[in-house]
Amino acid sequence: MAFELPKLEYEYAALEPHIDARTMEIHYTRHHQAYVTNLNNALTGSEWGKKSLEEILSGVSKLPVAVRNNGGGHFNHTLFWTVMAPNAGGPPQGELLDALNRYFGSFDKFKEQFANAGMTRFGSGWAWLVKAGNELKITSTPNQDNPLMDIADVKGIPILGVDVWEHAYYLKYQNRRNEYLTAFWNVVNWDEVARRLKF
Ligand code: MN3
């Protein structure tokens, strides 16, 4: 069973004005599709092709770099589309808010540290909120790496991620990654992050 591009649950324009429709369309139909296609090509004829994406990522050090890049790309974007939604944003509630307060001091301090992880990632990559055992941690990864990979510095289950590749923001924000990261809070789907926290 080959990997497939997951359905996007909202229109390309649904995250406007924070994420523009053209960026969403290119990001989803071209960038994400390319990761899926190239992942399937890289796994052709391999026993690993029968495994789940999570299993593949946890053994990625044993696999060709094309699997690391494109398997990571497929996982990361699949998560990214779901942790954003129209009419979202605002502060989280309940257990998730309690957990952010506990590990980072306050919701504002969490936002500051998460944005800082995105800002200080040199070149292309991702910033993450991860569940590591019973703890929450903030980390960032280069390229399409993620915390599920056996080669990650900080390992855990990603529950929120933001793409800081220029293709994620350049059409609207050009070099102003900080403005994109500030706008991101207006589209975060906290219900989905809370759902992932429970896994
Ligand atoms: Mn991307």
Which properties best describe this structure?
alpha+beta; 3 strands; minor pseudopilin epsh fold; binds manganese (III) ion; Helix Hairpins; three-stranded antiparallel β-sheet; 8 helices; 199 residues
Write out the strand line-up for the largest beta sheet, numbering strands in chain order. Answer: 2-1-3
Major sheet summary line:
3 strands, antiparallel
Each distinct ligand: manganese (III) ion
Instruction: Give the count of structural domains.
Output: 2
Instruction: Classify the fold: give the CATH topology of the largest domain.
Output: minor pseudopilin epsh fold
Oligomer: single chain
Instruction: Please state roughly what percent of the residues sit in beta strands, choosing from under 5%, 5-15%, 15-25%, 25-35%, 35-45% or over 45%.
Output: 5-15%
Termini, distance in Å?
Answer: 25 Å
How many strands? 3
Mean of residue pLDDT values: 97
Topology as a string of helices (H) and strands (E): HHHHHEEEHHH
CATH homologous superfamily assignment of the largest domain:
Iron/manganese superoxide dismutase, C-terminal domain
Structural class: alpha+beta
User: What is the tally of helical segments?
Assistant: 8
State the name of the first-level CATH class of the largest domain.
Alpha Beta
